[in-house]
Write a structure and sequence with these properties.
Number of strands of chain B: 11
Structural class of chain B: mainly beta
Order of helices and strands of chain A: EEEEEEEEEEE
Helix content of chain A: under 10%
Radius of gyration of chain B: 13 Å
Largest sheet of chain A: 6 strands, mixed
Number of helices of chain B: 0
Largest interface: A-B, 24 and 25 residues
Structural class of chain A: mainly beta
Radius of gyration of chain A: 13 Å
Order of helices and strands of chain B: EEEEEEEEEEE
Distance between the termini of chain B: 33 Å
Oligomer: heterodimer
Number of helices of chain A: 0
Distance between the termini of chain A: 38 Å
Helix content of chain B: under 10%
Strand content of chain A: over 45%
Strand content of chain B: over 45%
Chain lengths: ~110, ~110
Amino acid sequence: QQQVKQSPQSLIVQKGGISIINCAYENTAFDYFPWYQQFPGKGPALLIAIRPDVSEKKEGRFTISFNKSAKQFSLHIMDSQPGDSATYFCAGDTDKLIFGTGTRLQVFP
Amino acid sequence: DTGVSQDPRHKITKRGQNVTFRCDPISEHNRLYWYRQTLGQGPEFLTYFQNEAQLEKSRLLSNRFSAERPKGSFSTLEIQRTEQGDSAMYLCASSLTVEAFFGQGTRLTVV
């Protein structure tokens, strides 16, 4: 079922820096690509999402870049804050979500 | 709270016992999903319902697992004859369009 590969597994960034998480997918039937943020002991929370007909989507400090021909997409977190420290999951969706393995982000002050 | 609600939040059970979890989706959401998440991994799809119809079951869902969604409202996930390998976080999500919203999960520990 592993059709979405995510990297890096963990990421340490200084406050104010840019965090970048990458994902690659195999299933060309995916038509929706969300990113979820998960804090320990909590369920995943939808952060931002993109459709494959768009190359970039920005919401506040969060940006998704999408490369359909390469079957890759990435999450950029600008001006990273300690409160952004969490695990981030990318996913691909047809009629259900297929998740990547997650990236644990730690932002140090 | 109008989000997805799961009960219980934590469950410790002895190997071989049966357990049942409940999920109350966001009202008017017609789709309901169950996922399983183990430590350090992303959520893995188990099954989903559109209204009361169970449309897909993952190969991960052995015959010890059964899910229901009577009347298209809340859903239950039952695990029979639990095994230590069943220890995980069981997540429920609901959606009306493409955006899926997750509950807090039920953490199952089989001892």
